[in-house]
Specification:
A hairpin with a 2-residue loop joins strand 5 and strand 6. The protein is α+β, with helices and mostly antiparallel strands. It has a single domain, classed as Up-down Bundle (Outer membrane efflux proteins (OEP)). The protein is elongated and about 140 Å long. The two termini are 58 Å apart. It is built from 10 helices and 6 strands; from the N terminus they run αβααβαβααβααββαα. A 4-stranded antiparallel sheet has the order 2-3-5-6, with no helix packed on it.
Amino acid sequence: MNRFSSRIKVIAILISTCVSAGGQSITPQPSELITTAPPALNSNESGQQRRLTLQSATDLLIANNLVVVAARYNVDILRAQRIAAGLRPHPNLTFSATQFTIPRVLQNPSEFFTTNKENGAANSTYTLEVDQLIERGNKRQLRLSQADLNTQAAEAQLGDALRQQIFQLRQSFFTALLARENLRVLKENLDHFGRTENLLFVQVKDGYSAGVDLKRVQLQRLQFQNDVGNAQQNYQQALRDVFNLIGAGDTPSFANATQLTPAPAMPSVVPGIDASLDVIEGSLDIIPTLLWIDDLRTVALENRPDVKAAELSFRAAEQGLALAQAQRARDITVGAQYSRNGSDNTVGMVVGVPIRTGRFTGAAIAQATATKLQAQAQLTAVRNQALTDVEKAFTAYNISREKLHLFTDGALNTAAEVRHIEEMAYRDGAKGLLDYLDAQRSYNQTLIGYNQARFDFLMSLYQIEMATATTIVK
């Protein structure tokens, strides 16, 4: 009777622990993801903790991410170059003073500005000349067109940097959420094994259970402790990736790196986790979406900023080739001249034309042609890469959707039923405690697999968003 009573006590504790583990791991609610703020946490004036949502993290990334900031400065550089490309050549002013007869002009300073009566060839001469370069061959318009296209390409590259950095943020953010959900399951399972170990220790001490069962539970608990440590490491590393992407990678405290929306203070989502690390808010749940590959291919080629940047760079290279060919039209320099020779005033005109430009023009055309061919090859490569990214993302979408269906179509219920059957068998004495513990472990592994399936499906949708540069996840 005492042995049966001990079994009933073990079952009662196991049931309460398992119900808690199952309910929280499968359907986490946003309200569960709020934690109590310790003194070190960043908080607002009312003392409420600030939490990091995906939207707030995205806003911080757009403002502070250093890769995006560098791309934004590149746009400023190209805009300044565009201004320089549109400037016309400025006139050139030249002044010269020659033919000072020394030491005569020093002995008679008036000869600086008058005619030398003894030797007219020794008169001091002053010349003022204004020259203007006249560009031919429509060079200025070609420079402007090329600079405009380069600026637009830089703006598209900024959009591409945003696209890639936002995807990395989503990947790191949901990796942290996945690690936290798995950590929740493992923590609860570890606590469950701790209670079971204590009960078995009492049973062994009282002679109601064999010592080998206690040792096997202790070994299993050691494995769960190792799994918890790995999950904590994955969680903290993913958080570091998130904060690095939002421009707070050098912040020593996780909490001080969050500048977020205030939320009511509630217990931590993961019992035992450092509250200063529980600073993100989100869910792995997603509404399934139906997609078609042909539409995705078309959207990718139309919307991807890297494709647009490659197209604009190719068009800029075409303008560069036209500009190089325009060098065949020789520029002319014209000028007006005023000269004072002794007491005489004279005026004149200057016209300058380059004599030999063929070799320089040929070299410039050869370079511009190679640049155009290079840009054309890069455009083809970028388009092919875009289509490849769509194919890979769509494959990941189909496979992850099927994996998710395996869990939602019955795997979770099957694992719960097996656990219940093993529980009843242990209660009736038909099976040992370890059979029931094995069923519980399988159930928890199923929950972790379900979390991974949700993560994979969600990331496949974000991968499609990145491949097509359009919004899919609402």
